[in-house]
Amino acid sequence: AARIIQNMDPTADPCKDFYQYACGGWLNRHVIPETSSRYSIFDILRDELEIILKGVLETSDQGDREAFQKAKILYKSCMNETLIEQRDSLPLLEALRMVGDWPVASADWSKTKEPSWSMEENLSIMNSRFNKRVLIDMFVWNDDRDSSRHIIYIDQPSLGMPSRDYYFNGGNYQRVREAYLQFMITIAKMIREDKNVSKDDSFVQEEMAKVMEFETEIAN
Description:
Layout: H1 2-6, H2 18-29, H3 41-57, H4 66-79, H5 81-87, H6 90-98, H7 109-112, H8 119-130, E1 137-143, E2 146-155, H9 165-168, H10 172-194, H11 201-219
């Protein structure tokens, strides 16, 4: 209750400016950080929680249960920037190898990989090993008809961009769409370079344009 009162502006007349009356205290005491597009009590709680979690994850792991140990191992692996820089793109290249490589980053994928490549198998690998849903989203959740049991749900996954508006609308959406395509082209070129595959900009652009067209069809 004290926090709500603190975030109000009782000096304002609610009949003339209810927003200032209800939120004026908050507006006077908070500025949206340059790194954020919004700032609310939930953002503040999230920042406070991250500080607490950081302290917990940096403590000694002696006597911790297995789940805590795994969380601390993951945190340490993310903080070891020296090793991350040293490994460079190797983890990504290994992940691509596990799912049958990436046609645009290969000189002869259709000959060496495609004959034995299975979409069903690689979709399951993406889901189980990398927690990445492509084309189909599958998860276990409470049954809407019987909350005492869990069932498998099959749903559509998220798109490459935040919503389908980005694939069809003009203005800022179009600028984001163009940047998204250029980003895909840039990543493909970088991976080809790291794999010592010959430079072929026109091939990369054509392939990524096909990916963009395919994503647009899915969004539609």
